[in-house]
């Protein structure tokens, strides 16, 4: 693959920092743009001395002008407590961020990939979820700022593609975990591991029978890069996730086993509109990208637990 100049918005975040690292290792020039809302300089500190890496502190709700060949648009808080902290800002980031990267892509004739989400399926009535499912999303609940922002971003991507000929790629990412998640992130994997390591109660929201499918970050990043470099005319949306499906009770038991913790499980109220089930159909990714996850939940939790242990 010829080397490229690549813009990664949200590049100082959890997934973004792994993506920047891999793109640099492949010999590309990487421009990481981030407002450091949930991202941290610590995530990209080890890349700062690389002459092919640049960091720009910038907010994607403002226009962006940098020359580039490819754009990965990851800028957006992803954890429910973080995206619900300032919901108006989250909606702006989803929608205006998409508009600004699309304008840049049009201007530079760059290819642009949108990090969409399994949240576009809402609380799904079709299980598992194929890309053809239109979803079951509350338009005015506490999760809507994120879900509808991401849905509008998909709309804008397709309209810029149809109307302006912009070269777009859309991936729908299912729950991803791994090192560099924030210990205070609020998502289930980081919460359970931190609670287990500290000997605190494990907080199960609701009865814990709701399911999620967890993908290790290295698998996900491989899928993002394959999608960006997929054949002309293949826009997606394509699901990227690990089809292994677990209840939150099963996840808690696995974390307790792997950490050797004696923490107890306690039940807390289920947040509003919490999806009851989620599992990707990944046939399209397998067919178009030759991609499927290779790392099991137990194998991926080990380095994740080691990362959090280091931080204690
Ligand atoms: P994260 O919060 O670690 O990363 C998001 C990054 O975007 C952070 O560095 C943050 O500072 C930055 N950001 C937020 N708002 C911004 C703004 N207005 N301008 C510039 N930068 C901004 O979360 P993550 O898990 O790494 O998620 C990355 C992307 O992947 C997000 O778009 C998210 O919606 C998507 N995604 C993630 C998951 C997952 O399970 N991790 C699932 C589905 C979709
Ligand atoms: N969850 C939980 N305990 C926690 C954090 C989350 O039981 O401490 C549950 C949450 O209610 C949801 C699932 O775990 O059903 C995944 O939550 P997360 O916030 O990680 O992601 P999302 O709901 O966006 O998939």
Structure description:
This protein has 312 residues and is an alpha/beta fold. It has one domain (5-177, 215-243, 279-295): Rossmann fold (3-Layer(aba) Sandwich), CATH 3.40.50.720. 37% of the residues lie in helices and 17% in strands. The chain is built from nine helices and 13 strands. It has helices spanning 14-25, 80-83, 87-108, 144-164, 188-198, 217-228, 248-259, 283-289, 297-311; strands spanning 5-9, 29-34, 53-57, 70-73, 111-117, 168-173, 176-177, 202-205, 211-213, 215-216, 238-240, 245-247, 265-268. It has a seven-stranded parallel beta sheet with strand order 3-2-1-4-5-6-11, sandwiched between helices. Strands 7-10 form a two-stranded parallel ribbon. The chain has a two-stranded parallel ribbon with strand order 8-13. β1 (5-9), α1 (14-25) and β2 (29-34) form a beta-alpha-beta unit. α1 packs across α6 (217-228), α5 packs across α9 (297-311) and α7 (248-259) crosses α9 (297-311). The longest helix is centred in the first third of the chain and has 22 residues, at 87-108. It is globular. The mean pLDDT is 97. Nicotinamide-adenine-dinucleotide is lined by residues 9-10, 12-16, 34-39, 59-61, 74-78, 93, 97, 115, 117, 173, 175-176.
């Amino acid at each position: 693959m010829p080397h490229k100049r690549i813009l990664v918005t949200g590049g100082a975040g959890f997934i973004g920092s792994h993506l920047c690292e891999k793109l640099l290792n492949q010999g590309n020039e990487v421009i990481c743009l981030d407002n450091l809302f949930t991202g941290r300089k610590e995530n990209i500190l080890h890349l700062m001395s690389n002459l092919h890496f640049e960091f720009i502190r910038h907010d994607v709700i403002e226009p962006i002008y940098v020359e580039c060949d490819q754009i990965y648009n990851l800028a957006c808080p992803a954890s429910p407590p973080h995206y619900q902290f300032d919901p108006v800002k989250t909606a702006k980031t989803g929608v205006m961020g998409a508009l600004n990267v699309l304008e840049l892509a049009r201007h530079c004739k760059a290819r642009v990939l949108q990090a969409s989400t399994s949240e576009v399926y809402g609380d799904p009535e079709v299980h598992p979820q194929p890309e053809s499912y239109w979803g079951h999303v509350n338009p005015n609940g506490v999760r809507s700022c994120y879900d509808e922002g991401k849905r509008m971003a998909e709309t804008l991507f397709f309209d810029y593609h149809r109307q302006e000929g912009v070269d777009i790629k859309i991936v729908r990412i299912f729950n991803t975990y791994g090192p560099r998640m924030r210990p205070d992130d609020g998502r289930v994997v980081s919460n359970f591991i931190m609670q287990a390591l500290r000997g605190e109660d494990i907080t199960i929201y609701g009865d814990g029978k709701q399911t999620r499918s967890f993908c290790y970050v290295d698998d996900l990043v491989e899928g993002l890069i394959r999608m960006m470099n997929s054949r002309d005319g293949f826009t997606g949306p394509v699901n990227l996730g690990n089809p292994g499906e677990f209840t939150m009770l099963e996840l808690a038991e696995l974390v307790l086993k792997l950490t050797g913790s004696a923490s107890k499980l306690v039940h807390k109220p289920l947040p509003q509109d919490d999806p009851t089930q989620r599992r990707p159909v990944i046939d399209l990714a397998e067919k178009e990208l030759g991609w499927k996850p290779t790392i099991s939940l137990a194998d991926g939790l080990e380095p994740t637990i080691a990362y959090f242990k280091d931080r204690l």
